[in-house]
Specification:
The structure is a homodimer of 246-residue chains. Chain A is of the alpha+beta class. Chain A has eight helices and eight strands. The first copy, chain A, is 38% helix and 17% strand.
Chain lengths: 246, 246
């Protein structure tokens, strides 16, 4: 889809695009300009959108993993049985002390209007002067994608396992929900936004000390996925330098 | 390896073992009794340890993912180039605002004695009366497995993205480090323990507001992996019940 010239050798076609896009983005303020206008050298990578979430092998998948945007998700979404499979697979998440400090509440397709009502009520309670656009945005959020899983961090308080580890495990569990959805051929997206931080919304699904860790939308993307910038490896990985006084 | 009788149909051989083991564990207080002594019915699953981390497909892998124990990890571990690959793959982690609020410090094989010294110094500063066994445990922790990656949560403070999301992203990143290591044929284990919560140890690798999110050990298991109990699906997944007042 894109033909790009690359400078330093990139680790993966996706990253190469990300690097180019990041440069383009920085220089122009635009993210989606046609990259084909760049000069083509011998070092060329052609990347098609179909390469995202490539399930031909575990490595290919992990190297091409990409979330989808809920507003672009259409049917088919996972069936109830597939949602059970997705959650069951994701339960294989590291979890110190075997506390399973996370859980999923699945919102059915027929309940989206009620969810929208719940969001709206909570929002108006917090912001009585809310404008039309804000309320429309909330309403859209309640209706997006064929499947919606509300992820709750459910820490166990009567344990020696620190809350910190229980929260990290929740993030790992969310990651595995997305992987499991992708394994079944769907695309997933992990979204937060205003409702994730409102107590009244949290009370629709759970109770303190539970906390919304995100809304996991699942479905089929009606547009081709596109790459987003990723960090530079050298910013993320470093070699340890022991202190000199040792 | 194990021959087990099962009751209700389980989703996956691993889970079946987990269910049986959980029952056995509850009833006997022992986790590792030979399951082959149980009577064998028509509904039998034979599970070999080799089924863990089955890389034949993405679904097979996710359904059989299992961490290893650092103390059982031996060579070969990942090379420096493979560690770069593992971290690069894991950088494809959901991360609201593209902050990359996590990083890895790799401790080389030749630096383990210095790491042990660092742990010991910090421990003795906090607990001057420390006993021999405690210090030996710390020393072992510093020396385990061929490869050791220190994972830091590195939140960005000058942003509208809540700390909560940055921490959850760190948990997701850790999950992907393990997946990436497994994709390359190694086994990974995510460990915390005393050093993960000590400021002096944190200062060996980073600085506030960074926080150690775990020690990620990578290598090859010198024993067969074994299943651990997993939660019941019905405890983790529920259908939403909207409030009646709507």
């Amino acid at each position: 889809m894109w033909t790009v010239k690359c400078g330093p050798v990139a680790r993966h076609p996706n990253e190469k695009n990300a690097q180019v896009k990041q440069i383009v983005s920085t220089e122009t303020g635009l993210l989606a300009i046609p990259l084909a206008i760049l000069p083509v050298s011998a070092e060329v990578t052609r990347m098609t959108e179909e390469q995202f979430n490539d399930r031909s092998s575990l490595s290919a998948y992990l190297s091409s993993r990409r979330s989808g945007r809920p507003r672009n998700m259409v049917a088919p979404g996972p069936s109830d049985a597939q949602i059970e499979d997705i959650v069951a697979i994701a339960m294989r998440t590291p979890d110190h002390g075997k506390l399973a400090p996370w859980r999923i509440v699945s919102v059915a397709a027929g309940q989206r209007d009620q969810l929208a009502q719940g969001f709206r009520k909570a929002y108006l309670a917090a912001k009585p002067e809310a404008g039309r656009l804000e309320l429309e945005g909330l309403d859209a959020m309640a209706h997006e994608a064929p499947a919606l899983l509300v992820l709750l961090s459910s820490p166990v308080q009567s344990t020696k396992i620190p809350l910190w580890e229980q929260q990290l495990s929740c993030g790992a569990f969310a990651m595995n929900i997305l992987h499991a959805a992708h394994a079944l051929g769907f695309v997933g997206g992990w979204i937060t936004g205003w409702p994730a931080y409102n107590e009244e919304v949290r009370n629709l699904f759970g109770s303190a000390p539970e906390r919304i860790a995100g809304f996991l939308y699942l479905g089929t993307s009606n547009i081709e996925l596109s790459e987003r910038p990723r960090p530079e490896l050298t910013d993320i990985l470093s070699s340890w330098t022991p202190p000199i006084d040792q």
